[in-house]
Design brief:
By secondary structure, the chain is of the alpha/beta class. The protein is built from 19 helices and 21 strands. The longest helix is centred in the middle third of the chain and has 20 residues. It holds the Pfam family PAP2.
């Protein structure tokens, strides 16, 4: 139940009175002994799961036991203690907080004019519009269909004379709207989904009011607030700080610091919420949208408006809120309609199908797609998952928060809910990070990595892909380095690719469809069986155990010389109906297809387009002599 101070007249309380009430509770001025805004850890442990309680995130609720958002961010209690007023908080972990402020000071000191301009644009531009850039070559197509516009496209060279807000620019098409676009547009269901995910229960303000962690430009390196008693040329109080706000944003700052906490970052929360909503509707750009949210959120630090702690907490809050809202039964019809509408519209506009839209969505060069390079995206995201947070203690598996699996529902639609939870668990950040290890540990979820499939097979994994269903239902690639004791079984008619340096020990069974090995150790360290299915090798691969093929196809690229397309550390058995399909480099005359410790059996058929193939079998290898014709 809410504290009596808040229960009395929750609708009548002003924001300022809510803050005063929270400060009074923190200082022990109300109801007897001191009661931290974080309340008692046992309350968090006994609370409802966030996805079942997200609608408690309103400004009338500012404690762990009354507000689910405040609760999941309560890992901050190991770093910072809220004071009676906004400027009297107490640093608890001075090492982390000092690193937090030093990062801000270093970034803003090294900031270029171009970075300042970009920080201004993303401060003033509607966040739902900003993340549309994560759609790459689909961005302009989406904007046209959704009638999404912005008036913030450039930055002034200095401090503007007035505050600036986003608006529909003159000359925009009729019905245009800022943000994700117009709900009445051709992509109205997608727009409505984004707006719903960013709805009335998604605010960062209750947590800001509860934590009362000042913005970096109001704090010293030691997280102290020192008002110099002077004002700048704009009339703003000058605080002692090494953090320099971008000149374009000096007039955009709040004049009421008690209502302007930095933790969590509201812009970051909004950016990730919008990105995850778009990613649900357009999963062909899932990983790029996640990257975009991380990228633009970082401009909050570049701007001098937020610290790493603010940005990390904003991302944590958004991850939980997006999962809760997408899980809400009231939104089931909307999210399905948004996904269907996006797919149909984008395919129609690009002349693609469910099977070819992904390739089109990734066809843009870096000049038109800022997130075209997956490796660069990973380099961008990885350090921003934790920023300056140190890691201590031992690792332990993540207990995936209830409902988190919905975030992968359209990106990995061929997996069960339990399997999607396993993906989140096996790709999670390690334990031991302050803030990330708070209640439910939403901060440990790594959606960039999860979009690339399993990180470990803790148990045997069975997957069925359906080529007729199209899209990710029919074809996908797992790019992570997969470990663990389990193995993989592929069924159905679709295609699954493995491109990681895999170390899983449970073996591979291809009993339907096509498994594509795109790395030397893609098949793990166990046995491999291919039966009534196909194994395709896009580069020379190794089987850690034995290899058995029955009524199946081995498709490989072979090159002149002694290096085998497939190396088997155990016995290779070619059973009845085994077929071989080879692609060879021009001029090849003798290629080694398979080399094993011991070989039994023969291929029933060998096809090499453009060549007549003569197989040569030895006790431990298969070679093919090639002749034109």
């Amino acid at each position: 139940m809410p504290h009596p101070l808040f229960a009395a007249h929750p609708r009548a309380l002003s924001r300022r009175n809510l803050l005063r009430g929270t400060a009074a509770i923190s200082a022990g001025l109300v109801g007897g002994p001191a009661l931290s805004w974080l309340s008692v850890p046992a309350l968090a442990a006994a609370a409802k799961a966030f996805v079942d309680d997200y609608q408690s995130n309103i400004t009338a609720n500012l404690t762990v036991d009354t507000n689910a958002a405040v609760r999941i961010l309560s890992g901050v209690q190991t770093l910072w203690q809220t004071g009676p007023t906004w400027d009297t908080g107490v640093p608890l972990d001075r090492t982390v907080l000092r690193a937090n402020m030093r990062h801000c000071a270093a970034v803003t000191a090294a900031r270029t004019d171009a970075q300042a301009a970009r920080a201004f644009i993303h401060d003033r531009q509607h966040q739902s519009y900003a993340v549309i850039s994560g759609l790459g070559v689909l961005a302009d197509i989406y904007k046209a269909g959704a009638l999404a516009v912005t008036s913030i496209t450039t930055a002034p060279t200095g401090t503007p004379p007035t505050t600036i807000s986003d608006a529909v620019p003159p000359g925009a098409p009729a019905g245009s709207a800022i943000g994700a676009g117009s709900p009445s547009s051709a992509l109205g269901a997608v727009v409505t989904l984004v707006d719903t995910v960013r709805g009335g229960f998604s605010s960062s303000n209750p947590s800001k009011f509860a934590v009362q962690y000042p913005r970096p430009w109001r704090m010293t390196e030691n997280s102290e607030v020192v008002d110099t008693g002077e004002v700048d040329e704009l009339g703003f109080p000058i605080y002692r700080s090494d953090v320099v706000v971008a000149p374009q944003l000096l007039r955009q700052r709040s004049r009421t610091p008690a209502e302007d906490g930095g933790f969590p970052s509201g812009h970051t929360n909004a950016l990730h919420l919008a990105a995850l909503a778009f990613a649900y509707a357009i999963p062909e750009r899932f990983q790029e949208l996640v990257t975009c949210a991380f990228d633009i959120s970082d401009t909050r630090i570049t701007a001098g408006m937020h610290s790493p702690l603010d940005v990390v907490s904003g991302r944590i809050l958004a991850t939980a809120l997006a999962a809760a809202i997408l899980n809400d039964p009231a939104n089931a019809g909307l999210k399905a309609a948004a996904r269907q509408q996006a797919a149909a519209y984008l395919q129609a506009q690009t002349g693609t199908t469910a099977d070819t839209l992904y390739a089109y969505a990734h066809s843009g060069a870096s000049s038109v797609d800022p997130y075209a390079d997956r490796a660069a995206n990973q380099r961008l995201v990885t350090p921003k998952l934790t920023y300056i947070l140190p890691r201590t203690g031992r690792d332990k598996p993540l207990t995936v928060p209830k409902g988190a699996e919905v975030l992968l529902e359209t990106r990995l639609p061929y997996l069960t809910a339990a399997q999607r939870r396993a993906v989140l668990r096996s790709t999670a950040l390690p334990a031991g990070y302050a803030l990330l290890d708070g209640p439910e540990q939403w901060g440990r979820i790594n959606l960039f990595a999860a979009a690339d499939g399993y990180g470990a097979f803790d148990d045997d994994v069975e997957v069925t892909l359906d080529a007729a269903a199209g899209g990710f239902h029919g074809a996908d690639t797992w790019r992570n380095d997969i470990s663990g004791p389990g193995g993989l079984t592929l069924r159905g008619t679709g295609t699954l690719g493995l491109t990681g340096a895999n170390r899983f020990r449970g073996g591979v069974r291809v009993l339907g469809g096509t498994l594509v090995a795109g790395a030397t150790n893609a098949l793990g360290t166990g046995d491999v069986q291919v039966r009534d299915a196909a194994l395709r090798l896009t580069q020379a691969s190794t089987v850690g155990g034995g290899y058995r093929q029955h009524n199946g196809l081995l498709a490989a690229t072979a090159r002149q010389g002694g290096h085998a397309a497939l190396t088997v550390n155990g016995t290779a058995e070619l059973g009845r109906g085994s077929a071989l399909e080879l692609t060879v480099e021009p001029g090849a005359q003798l290629v080694t297809v398979l080399r094993a410790r011991r070989l039994t059996g023969r291929f029933a058929s060998i096809v090499v387009p453009g060549y007549r193939a003569e197989p040569i079998y030895t006790a431990n290898a298969v070679l093919v002599r090639l002749r034109r014709g």
